[in-house]
Amino acid sequence: MMRKRIAFLAGAISFDNQSRVVDGVLKRASEMGIDVYIFTCFVNYDELEENKIGAFRIMDLPDFSTFDGVICMKNSIKYEPAARSVVNRIIKSKVPAVSIDEKINGMHYVGISDYKSQKSIVEHLINEHHLTKINYVCGILEGKEGADRYRAYRDAMAEHGIPVCDDQIYYGNYNRESGRKAVEFFAKTNMPQAIVFANDAMAIGGTERLRQYGYRVPEDIVITGFDNDELSEFCVPSLTTVDRRQQKIGETAVDLLLANEDECEIEQETQVLYRESCGCNEQSEMKLTDLRIDYQNKCLIYEEALDTLKSMQLDLTGLESIDELCGRLKKYVIKSDMKSFYLCLCDRKKLFEGDTLKCESYTQNINIPIAYHNEEFSSYNEFPTRDILPEAVRNTDRQTFYVVTPIYYQKICYGYCISDGSTFALKSELSYLWTVNIAMALENIRKWKWINRMNEKISRMWKYDMLTQVLNRSGFFFCAEELVKDIKSTDSMAFMIFLDIDGLKSVNDNQGHEVGDAFIAEIADVLKRAVPKDCLIMRYGGDEFVVFGSCENGDRMRAIVSRIKAMIAEANEAPDRRYTLSASFGCSVHDAAEIENLNGLIEAADKQMYQEKKAKKKKLSNNN
User: Kind of pairing, strands 69-72 and 97-100?
Assistant: First the structure.
């Protein structure tokens, strides 16, 4: 009996908010023996549209009907088309589902009141610190949490009779840089007494810029954040913020999935942490020494991971095949903390064999060119993409969690990576560079293959006649050099056959040049079937062909001419023909010493052909 499976969908799980929710989900799932599949990606808010499309395509991967439940953090999926599609597919699947931080019809809900928590902070500044000039830095207002936090600020100020001007509001996007830009914006007017930031990252960026401008926090300006990010306790001064208790939210989400209850809503209590940045000084649960040791350890892990990723990037540069890529990946898989690793690629024909971009979504089947499982490397042939992993892999004895991340380059969908039980994949903001490195290697392989195909086409265009696909004059004389060397080195003889199509002008005049082209191509097809592979065939002119090869005497040449004539006769026996195949032949045989001038050999055979054609015309005239 297979264990139950939960799908968890969120953007950027290395961010503290999502990471702590994941911790809660995994804790409860482990207690209940449930496997968790985490579908995630990392994309900045200001990424190009095509990168967002490529990254958030991972949300299209899971077939929710194959899972026992789904947990979705819609607010973290910062691309509206993907977020909307995910919600619709979850509801349509009719599997038990929980939405975190946003109420959605048809799904359980668990979250916090962003409104109440943000309002508490603003009221604390007004009531406890007697501040009135309080500016606000918004998050993304298109999201519910950003809108609720901003509304809480405006309501708290209004309820206390404190007016708010437009120049007291800055519209940020949750990253540190927008916090810095907010301070720059406020500095153009009079600085406030306090700045309330909609999250900790912006607050930390703002504090940094204030320090550069010579302001002290909290002596000159009070700062607050939201979310209780890990760094909020380490920074100087420590940041007043809201602990959202996300781990408890994750645990509750799993409980709701398994409760078999009707749709319900649970709102968890939060805790405002009043720290140094607002002038309060609540003591940290950790001693300063412990904080320093913890931070030092994380810095060391980060630096080691960064060094490994730099080395990996160099090792995966300039590869020409999937086999090379898999060979180079092995040492990095072994060095990682992954219990298992699977590189899952879309249909290789769509990825690598077309001249244009074809693979913009997951293909029906997927293959695994490199898998690491039970400390051994292997591979898996095609299996249905909806299974995510082969059945043999999924039927393991131990409970685990999988992190599933996209492999893409702009809009090109290469597939996905799966890691099993990896803390690095869960916690490190560098983990996405793993798949970026692999994606760039695959894109280089695709481009390399495309360039090779284009070079082959160009080479073929230079050497071959496009209508008949036999050698043109340039290709013939290029290839003939090697054949001439062989003939001379073996002191063999050479033959030249000159063939001129009979009746082509009449076909062109009476049936059109398309039929005339078909006539020429059919003669060429006869030659390709009749002439041995070690001989050269050239389209010499519009209706003229040349065959060049080696022989011991003229018997081989005569046998080839006989075979060509027999195949022409056989073709003419086909019913409903629009024209009759016919050709005149001229042949010449030469010693090795005579083949320096190939044009001379061609002219000799041409003269013989002319005599045959002249005889045919005379015979036709006599018959008439």
Answer: parallel
Spatial strand order of the sheet with 35-39 comes to 265-267, 108-111, 97-100, 69-72, 5-9, 35-39, 401-409, 412-420, 340-345, 365-373, 376-384
Whole-prediction pTM = 0.73
Please report the pLDDT score of residue 172 as a whole number: 94
* DSSP class per residue in 121-146: HHHHHHHTS----EEEEE--TTSHHH
CA angle 166, 169, 173 (to 5 degrees): 140
What would you report as the CA-atom Rg of the chain, rounded to the nearest whole angstrom?
37
pLDDT digits (tens, 9 = 90+) for 145-197: 899 999 999 999 999 999 999 999 999 988 899 999 999 999 998 899 999 99
Query: Residue 257: exposed, middle, or buried by beta-carbon count in 10 A (0-12, 13-18, 19+)?
Result: buried
DSSP letters for 412-437: EEEEEEEEES-HHHHH-TTTHHHHHH
Whether residue 469 contacts residue 525, with contact meaning beta carbons closer than 8 Å, is answered with no
Please state, in angstroms and rounded to a whole number, the distance separating the CA atoms of residues 336 and 190: 51
- Asked whether the predicted pLDDT for residue 286 surpasses 60, the reply is no
> CA-CA distance, 488 to 494, in Å (whole number)?
10
Residues 598-608: pLDDT tens digits? Answer: 998 999 999 99
Each residue's pLDDT tens digit, 583-624 = 999 999 998 888 888 998 999 999 999 988 888 877 776 665
CB burial string 288-319: b at 16+ within 10 A, e below: eeeeeeeeeeeeeeeeebeebbeebeebbeeb
| DSSP for residue 405 | E
- Structure-token pair, residue 15: 């961010």
Which residues make Cβ contacts (< 8 Å) with residue 421, sequence separation at least 6?
337, 338, 339, 340, 400, 401
- How many percent of the chain have pLDDT more than 90? 61
464-506 confidence digits (pLDDT tens) = 999 999 999 999 999 999 999 999 988 899 999 999 999 898 8
- Token pair 């095609």 is at which residue? 382
Q: Would you call 356 helix, strand, or coil by DSSP?
A: coil
Containing 24, the helix (H) or strand (E) segment is: helix 16-32
CA distance 26 to 71: 12
Q: Please check whether residue 546 is in contact with residue 537, taking contact to mean a CB–CB distance below 8 angstroms.
A: yes
Rounded to whole angstroms, the Cα distance separating 27 from 39 reads 17
Task: Determine whether 219 is exposed, middle or buried from the number of CB atoms within 10 Å of its CB (0-12, 13-18, 19+).
Answer: exposed
The H or E element containing residue 194 is strand 194-197
Strands 412-420 and 340-345: what pairing? antiparallel
Asked if residue 585 lies in contact with residue 558, where contact means CB atoms within 8 angstroms, the answer is no
